[in-house]
């Protein structure tokens, strides 16, 4: 049974949960973090449901309450939550190193299976998901309850956290099994309470999108397309506009990446229609950027510029409590990066490089995968702009992160940079980058 976190509740004082959540988001911005804290999250902490926050929230809380440890804030040490004796919660560096990444992977190699047992009663969750984990396991439950729903929701959060740190390739195979279990729970839970089933639909749909993204980022495009379609169907069944907008957002992104640019435009526009009633300007900004990317792929400069103008107008309205939790990655660095992709698609390489440089400069080091992606975009844009030494320097920065981040997208962009720089091998910086890249491919 969860034990209420009275220490954290005392720190909130007379502020409402919503007001305190706003203070958390403000504190996050002060130190360059991005968290989507809302009143519901505060309630989960105070109820004891969240026993130890993730690393982003950890840094924010310690910034808000200097001199206090996480235990002072009422949290449990991380090794006790995970059942490991690795490193205590407060000791994490604000800037993860490659060693930190190795620790995370070693600690959590089976995290996507275990995540289903962290949201409530371990016995109930294990029994209800055991049928998906091997022959001879227990059958699915006749009814689905709070423990199973929380387990699915926690699996989504863990996937996103690990993807931020390490990229998709190490995670995709592990993630498929919990996704099958989540949909099997949907089948098993038909007789459960309507509110429980609705939450399970949304959780399963978000899990499908997360697994789809892992497939997408690791180059398994048909798998990604299938997962996104599954999430969209789930959203329609559940009548959930937020899930529908998320599914369309990722579908648009995938369509652009696979050269189906008109589909990218249509999906982004459909996502905007779904999002229009949700009250999140940041979500509408991201969907407008997806639309801009589709127009750019079609070579339609006017359409692209119109969508970019809408994206900026929405972005300037700022963050709000209506912003979905999954959008924690979307801040000014991503805004710049998506603009860089648009100008690159339109062949304006120096302009694309300027936006990519701003994206890399603004990105917090914790989002290792996105930092590597922005630097890879910068390297290839610089190479196409005819500035080989600068491109090689950016390429070296990407290679500095390849041990920490596994992404087929980033590897493909880096290989593209190497091909473009091949004719300039006589330049010393270019030669060292090409040699180092060739070595990295062999490892």
Write structural notes for this entry.
The protein has 443 residues and is mainly α. It has 4 domains: 1-91, no CATH class; 108-239, no CATH class; 264-330, no CATH class; 332-443, Tetratricopeptide repeat domain (Serine Threonine Protein Phosphatase 5, Tetratricopeptide repeat), CATH 1.25.40. Helices cover 67% and strands 0% of the residues. The protein has helices at 6-12, 17-30, 39-46, 55-64, 78-82, 98-107, 111-114, 122-129, 146-166, 172-188, 194-217, 221-238, 241-257, 261-275, 281-297, 301-316, 332-345, 349-362, 368-384, 388-399, 408-421, 428-442. Helix 14 runs antiparallel to helix 15. The N and C termini lie far apart (47 Å).
Q: What gap, in angstroms, lies between the N and C termini?
A: 47 Å
Question: What is the mean predicted local confidence, pLDDT?
Answer: 80
Proportion of residues in helical segments: 55-70%
Q: Count every helix, treating DSSP H or I runs of 4 or more residues as helices.
A: 22
Summarize the structure.
The chain is an all-alpha fold and 443 residues long. Helices cover 67% and strands 0% of the residues.
Describe the protein's topology.
Blueprint: H1 6-12, H2 17-30, H3 39-46, H4 55-64, H5 78-82, H6 98-107, H7 111-114, H8 122-129, H9 146-166, H10 172-188, H11 194-217, H12 221-238, H13 241-257, H14 261-275, H15 281-297, H16 301-316, H17 332-345, H18 349-362, H19 368-384, H20 388-399, H21 408-421, H22 428-442
Organism: Streptomyces chengmaiensis
Protein name: Tetratricopeptide repeat protein
InterPro entries: TPR-like_helical_dom_sf (IPR011990)
């Amino acid at each position: 049974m969860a034990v209420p976190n009275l220490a954290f509740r005392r720190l909130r004082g007379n502020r409402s949960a919503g007001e305190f959540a706003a203070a958390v988001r403000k504190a996050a911005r002060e130190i360059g973090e991005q968290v989507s804290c809302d009143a519901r999250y505060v309630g989960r902490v105070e109820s004891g449901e969240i026993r130890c926050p993730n690393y982003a929230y950890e840094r924010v809380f310690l910034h808000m309450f200097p001199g206090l440890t996480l235990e002072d804030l009422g949290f449990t040490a991380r090794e006790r939550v995970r059942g490991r004796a690795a490193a205590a919660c407060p000791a994490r560096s604000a800037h993860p190193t490659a060693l930190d990444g190795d620790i995370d992977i070693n600690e959590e190699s089976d995290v996507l299976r275990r995540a289903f047992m962290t949201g409530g009663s371990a016995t109930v969750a294990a029994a209800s998901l055991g049928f998906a984990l091997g022959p001879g396991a227990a059958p699915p439950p006749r009814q689905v309850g709070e423990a199973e729903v929380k387990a699915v929701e926690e699996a989504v959060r863990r996937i996103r956290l690990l993807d931020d740190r390490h990229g998709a390739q190490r995670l995709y195979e592990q993630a498929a099994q919990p996704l099958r279990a989540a949909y099997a729970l949907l089948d098993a839970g038909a007789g459960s309470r309507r509110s429980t089933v609705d939450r399970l639909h949304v959780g399963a749909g978000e899990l499908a999108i997360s697994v789809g993204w892992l497939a997408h980022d690791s180059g398994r495009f048909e798998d990604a397309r299938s997962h996104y379609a599954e999430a969209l169907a789930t959203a329609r069944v559940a009548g959930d506009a937020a899930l529908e907008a998320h599914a369309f957002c990722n579908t648009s992104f995938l369509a652009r990446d696979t050269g189906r640019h008109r589909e990218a435009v249509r999906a982004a526009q459909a996502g905007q229609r779904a999002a229009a009633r949700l009250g999140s300007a940041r979500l509408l900004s991201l969907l407008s950027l997806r639309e801009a990317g589709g127009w750019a792929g079609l070579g339609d400069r006017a359409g692209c510029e119109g969508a970019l103008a809408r994206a900026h107008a929405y972005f300037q309205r700022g963050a709000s409590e209506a912003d979905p939790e999954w959008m924690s990655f979307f801040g000014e660095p991503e805004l710049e990066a998506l603009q860089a992709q648009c100008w690159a698609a339109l062949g304006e390489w120096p302009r694309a490089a300027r936006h990519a440089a701003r994206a890399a400069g603004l990105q917090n080091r914790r989002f290792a995968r996105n930092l590597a992606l922005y630097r890879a975009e910068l390297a290839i844009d610089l190479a196409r702009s005819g500035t080989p030494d600068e491109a090689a320097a950016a390429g070296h920065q990407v290679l500095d992160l390849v041990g920490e981040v596994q992404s087929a997208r980033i590897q493909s962009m880096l290989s593209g940079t190497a091909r473009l720089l091949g004719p300039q091998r006589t330049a010393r910086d270019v030669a060292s980058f090409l040699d180092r890249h060739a070595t990295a491919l062999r490892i």
